Amino acid sequence: MNPPNRTICSWRLRTRTLELGRRTLVMGVVNITPDSFSDGGRYLDSSLAVAHALSLLDEGADLLDLGAESTRPGVEAGAPTAAAVSADQEQARLLPVLAAILRERPQAIISVDTYKASTARAALQGGAEIINDVSGLAWDPEMARVCAEARAGMVLMHTRGRPSEWRSQPRLHPDELLSTVRYGLAASLAAAAAAGIPAESIVLDPGYGFGKRHEENYGLLARQGELLALGRPLLAGVSRKSFLGRTLAPLLGGQDAAANARETASLAAMVAAILFGASIVRVHAVRPAVEAALIADAVADARAKMNP
Fold first, then answer.
1. Is 303 a catalytic residue?
2. Are 115 and 85 in contact (CB under 8 A)?
């Protein structure tokens, strides 16, 4: 059976609308953190973060995703009590970079990766178009209202438990995992609708690596297209994820590949994600992703013409 073809639709953002589905959009990642798994704090300095963001746009990024708190296994991000990074600290890192990018490139489309409503509000007031909530509206009860009032575009991601729980999650059969992800994303869509966020403002993210065991990510990727039945486009973030490093271990004497040695694997997984229905891919290395996405889109277009 061929994977489902993605459909052409509109994504309503805060001040504009993007067409999705005709070609894959590439979202470049800018981590303004001291402890990101992917770049180890390389862009914590705001001037370096801005320069990096502008270079990603020059390389062909359609959107940027700015994040000022690292969310990875074992940390307490999203905890009901004190967060790993306070909202004030997150905003102090984030807002100057957001402002500087928009001064240089006023038409840049910027997403902010946060689960905190206060940071989302400040970022949207500062010119961000999209809030990328890794909790799918589950960790801050004010997030849905803030985004509804601002008419923001949203990425709602599936996270299985909180980061401190990810390593202890029980293994699931592929059918169980897909059902879990589908149920969680459906719940996020329902929460958004209840707050008055229109479906046209939402893109869904299966959440690769977020509470999924290494091998489980491949089963989810292979069946990702089934999530299109939820009625919204998909974003796939597989770049440099640890499950890729684990798969490369036999080539490295049994040692997982480091994050900076996963680029070829990231491209392979990204192409698979596109062929299984992703309309947007979130990547660290933009230029290779733009080139690979062009090839994947050509294959997807040919398949759609053969199987209308």
1. no
2. no
In the chain, domain spans = 9-306
Neighbour-count burial for 62-86, b at 16+ CB within 10 Å, e otherwise: bbbbbbbbbbbbebebbeeeebbbe
Helix, strand or coil for residue 81?
A: coil
Identify whether the C-beta of residue 49 lies closer than 8 Å to the C-beta of residue 57. Answer: no
Beta bridge partners, 282, equal 27
Query: Choosing from 182, 232, 241, 262, which is the catalytic residue?
Result: 241
Instruction: Give the residue carrying structure tokens 């470049």.
Output: 28
**Looking at 212, 213, 262, 282, which residue is catalytic?**
282
pTM, whole model, 2 decimals? 0.93
User: Is 116 designated active site?
Assistant: no
CATH topology for 9-306?
Answer: TIM Barrel (3.20.20)
H/E element holding 111?
strand 110-113
The string of pLDDT tens digits covering residues 249-286 is 999 999 999 999 999 999 999 999 999 999 999 999 99
